[in-house]
Structures are given as structure tokens and as C-alpha cells.
Amino acid sequence: MSAIRVLIVDDDALVRAGLAMMLGGAEDIEIVGQADDGTQVLAAIDTHRPDVVLMDIRMPKLDGLAATRLVRARPGAPQIIVLTTFDVDDHVLTALRHGAAGFLVKDTPPTQLLDAIRAAAAGGSVISPATTRRLVDHLVAARIARERPVPRRLDSLTGREREVLTLVARGCSNREISARLRIAELTTKTHVSRVLMKTRSRDRAQLVVLAYEAGLVRPGWNK
Q1: Backbone phi and psi for residue 10, each to the nearest 5 degrees, phi listed first
Q2: Nearest-CA neighbor of 64 among 15, 131, 28, 17?
Q3: Where are the domains of the chain?
Q4: FRET label pair with 185: which of 14, 89, 100, 195, CA 20 to 30 Å apart?
Q5: Domain 148-214: which topology?
Q6: Which of 55, 62, 64, 100 has its CA nearest to residue 79?
Q7: What is the pLDDT at residue 138?
Q8: Structurally, what CATH architecture does the domain formed by 4-126 represent?
Q9: How far, in Å, CA of 68 to CA of 96, rounded?
Q10: Maximum Cα interatomic distance, the chain, rounded to a whole number of Å
Q11: How far is it, in rounded angstroms, from Cα 13 to Cα 141?
């Protein structure tokens, strides 16, 4: 199998060097390029054809949010993992809305960073359940009204599909969903695929945002 091609985008040269050093020893990952601002991202993608982009949120000319929106609007766009200093960064929800596969704090341990890149390259979400709880509890409490009408995109979901969506939003894997609902893992995969299709969501990360904004999961659900 070919190596996962990774582009690093961060305005701090030391951060770029540190990420490149951490990832350099993995046989299945190749650092194909670097950029120091969002203005350089589209050209870098055209040149290097990465599978995954590690994207800093805060950059001086074009920030990671705007760059993520531009990248994900293109056909065949690479997956994007946004990087932030704080795991409750208010901008992370916006990045997920723009199509990011997930986010990581910059001090994520190397093994978790590698696993996240592999998951993103495979089309998965890279938000851990624990981090999802901290992020969403913070954002929902601060920015999202407690009582909101359920988006019409959820109208076509069956009861079982809503259960699956709720568990996805809680950070459960397909295996964990299968165990909780006592259904086969293949059945769970089918339900997830249908929920993605019916809600017109790109990936599991966008399902997380949709579920929280719809009020299917609220702050404090993990307590």
C-alpha cells in the first residue's frame, strides 16, 4: 500500500518542524509538503496532492477556517485535521461545519496523531469521545440555544437511525454502537450510511455537529 501523503500548514516553523519530526518515522506516512499560511494551501495541494492536511486554525493572512472551507469545496479534496492550542477552541465547531474530518490539540501524543491521520485518510472522524464531550459541552452551553427546532434533515430518519445518530454524536465507534443496540456491526454500518445520506452529511464529524445543534445530545449527557 502507498504511504499516506500529508501536508502540514502552520505559521510557526517550529510547530511544522516538530510535526514533521514526529511523523517522519512512520513507514506508512509521508510528509509531502509544508505551508505557513492558508493563502498557500490550494497551490500546495495542487503541487503535492496530499491525502490529509494538518491545518492550523490561527494564521495571519488566511486562517485555517477559511482555508478549510476553500479546500473542502473542491472535488476530490483531501481530508483536513485542524490543529488548535486549546481543546475547547470556539472555532473548532466552525471547522467541522466547513468539512474538517476532526481536530487535534497541538500537544497530542505522537501515537494518537498517527492514528488520527490514518483514520482521516480512511474517511473516518478523528474526534475522541472525551474531547468531543469537553468541546461540545463548552460550545453548546456558550453558543447554541438550549431549545431549537429539530432540523428538517432529521425528519426522514427512523427511530433506530436517530438512536444511531445520537450514539455517533457521543463518540461511539460502530462496534460500540452495535454492542449498545444489540445489532450486528454490518447493520450498524448500514444505518450510519443511511443517516449520512439522509442528512446530506459528509462524514461522522458533521453528524456530531448536526446532532448537538438539533438537541439530540445536550451538555451533561456523559455524567
Answers
A1: -160, 140
A2: 15
A3: 4-126, 148-214
A4: 100
A5: Arc Repressor Mutant, subunit A (1.10.10)
A6: 100
A7: 56
A8: 3-Layer(aba) Sandwich (3.40)
A9: 9
A10: 50
A11: 35
Q: How far is CA 156 from CA 27, 159, 176, in A?
A: 44, 10, 24
pLDDT tens-digit readout, 155-195? 889 999 999 999 988 878 888 999 999 999 999 999 999 99
Total Cβ atoms within 10 A of residue 219? 17
Helices within the chain (DSSP H only): 13-24, 41-48, 64-72, 92-97, 110-121, 129-143, 159-169, 174-181, 185-199, 204-214
Indicate the angle between helix axes 204-214 and 185-199, nearest 10 degrees: 70
Amino acid type, 61:
K
Residues in the chain: 223
Is pLDDT of 143 > 70? no
